[in-house]
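## tool: complex_structure
## caller: assistant
## args:
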Amino acid sequence: MALLQISEPGQTPDPHQRRVAVGIDLGTTHSLVAAVRHGVAECLPDAQGRVILPSAVRYLADGGRQIGDEALAAVAQDPENTIVSVKRFMGRGVQDVVGREKLPYRFAEHAGMLGLQTVAGEKSPVEVSAEILATLRYRAEDSFNDDLYGAVITVPAYFDDAQRQATKDAAQLAGLNVLRLINEPTAAAIAYGLDNASEGTYAVYDLGGGTFDISILQLSRGVFEVVATGGDSALGGDDYDAALAAWALHQAGLDSVTPADKARVKIAARACKEALSSAESAPFRATLSSGVAIDLPVTRERFEEITAGLTARTLSAVRKALRDARLGTDEVQGVVMVGGSTRMPVIRRAVGEFFGREPLVNLDPDEVVALGAAIQANQLAGNNAAGDLLLLDVIPLSLGIETMGGLVERIVPRNQTIPVAMAQDFTTYQDGQTALALHVVQGERDLVADCRSLARFELRGIPPMAAGAARIRVTFTVDADGLLNVSAREQISGVQAQIDVKPSYGLADEQIARMLQDSFSTAEDDMRARALVEARVEADRMLLATRSALQADGDLLTAQERTPVDDLMAAVDASRTSDDAKAIEAATEALAKGTEAFAALRMNRGIQKALSGKNIETV
Amino acid sequence: MTSLQSNDFELFGLSPQFAQERTQIDARWKDLQRQAHPDRFAAQGAAAQRIAMQWSVRINEAHQRLKDPLRRAAYLCELNGAAVNAENNTAMPSEFLMQQMAWREALEDAAGSAELDALADEVAEMRRALLQQCAQLLDEQHDYAAAVTQVRSLMFIERFARDIDARYEQLEQAERRQ
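## result:
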């Protein structure tokens, strides 16, 4: 048997043993992928040298797709089939989309999440996002000439459970192993914090294409702690374009135009806005399909007037986040600017005036989120064992349960550090009541109707008791990705019910499998060869991990417990030589399952040792 | 040895008393999370993730309780056999209730942020005084039964402080509409 080498703890393994892990900023208007190479985070370019991939997917009648710049170029001539800003639809129903009547798409109504009718059939926002993610995955695999171990994907801090779950599903569909979902502003702080080794309280003002986030972060000794978040998931640079476009159309006396013209005018608005970031005035020029031309001079001052309401909305969210954190503007040591829209001078000035200090802009506001995600991905993949970075994130929106009269009983208040578990006791309303319907909601409002419905489930089999006698403990557990699990247990009888809060749109696993087949058909032989290599690598990894675990903590097992583990290891070893990926996977899976209890014992020992060691050291 | 069953003070390696340094609590919290957070075990299996999550949840729970003086006081009472029973026991000294009613009226009448500021200051002052009494009852006299009464008063005050915050928000929104 070959001897496997194990590097000293804390030492970096050889480059070829490093796991390739990337950070992906899946943005509303554009997306990027970054990775740590030679100790430095950098965005990965495509074959043409472009790092920014426009978040645009065009579906063609022949089943083909165009993604990125190619799709964006077609948006004016084929707006219906060219999906841009799909992020706004993630985990959302048709009624949730603000301003949908102004959009060129044909929406399909579904419980939970909307669909988009295209010339190639109906597409879910998850599928559209998966196209973008897969494009970035291929780009990364080409850059490294290697398979990806995993990815950290960023989401707006304000994303609720349904939106986070949809993002994770899209990643799965694109064949990515999600190491962690992290908040975009937090990723930006990681990029800045490591470069500058800053300590103190920071605000991250993130105005992207379609979302606005404000986060208050505390940085100290390698720990990033989010103390408050706020924002608006339907406010971004696109709205500045739209406001300018609406103004221009109004000036030109054109109040109703075709979708194609609308798209043209928006492109012109965007160009004008971008020009105004470096010039005091710029022309607004667009030619409609009818031949009518719009040509208006726009000054920076006029532009700022037109969009003043939008800028004020961002500042009011900033005020609210500061209040949540119980901080004054003078206690903030620095303001990090993220998102291409923060290039607008009006934003930099408004934020500077609000905080009484110049905002930080030394990293590229388009790249900073992907760079931070890459640093975190590198750490989570275990490439940076000496790394001291730890992320302590919070839940962005309160979670609760519907009670009598359509009121919300909050169980986990927003801004709690995750992971977190919190419980609340409820009781029955009627004599002899044997079931309880639980409705899980997310949001800050007191009425259920004003919050987002996440899931419904029932606790059945409660023994009949007088009203108010049952004690039903409902526990909300939010994991480190911010995803929710709810369990309910009647304390007297012990009756239990549990649900992983898969959002109501419920992409079933079979559905995902179908989408995988539809969208990313790889030659079957390739897939089989790849599956075999992956299965062997995983088997080796599992064997190695188990051997070193037994060497370190074998004393935790009795001889009786040890024998089945040895047998399972022998079985994996034997299966490795076969060409049957499924058989190798099954043996590996059996070993993983058979050593779970042992792994639990080891973890507990390890953590107890670490914690107790700390206590002696510092007390 | 520390275990998941240790109480918050044991887990954080702090002596079980009311007087605590917030900076020390936060520093210990981060030290502990550095050992136990699931991200530390991201490259390991599902079982490791689950255990790490249990520890991490437990550490966050203890941190929430220890860092908040009111919850810390209530927890100390509970640890020493004096239940707070906030839901079932609302009997309060009449003097305190009168004070509460006067505050409620002042809050409803407050028309501007100056009046709200004055009320907020008064409430904060009362809170400080009660916390000081709590410290004495808990750390010096070890009279946990008496401390429970102060804890309940502080819970009333906390709720009222939240109502003041809500009123600030209302005023701000009204101003913006004008």
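## assistant note: Chain A has 15 helices and 27 strands. Chain A touches chain B through 48 residues (CB under 8 Å). Handing back to user.
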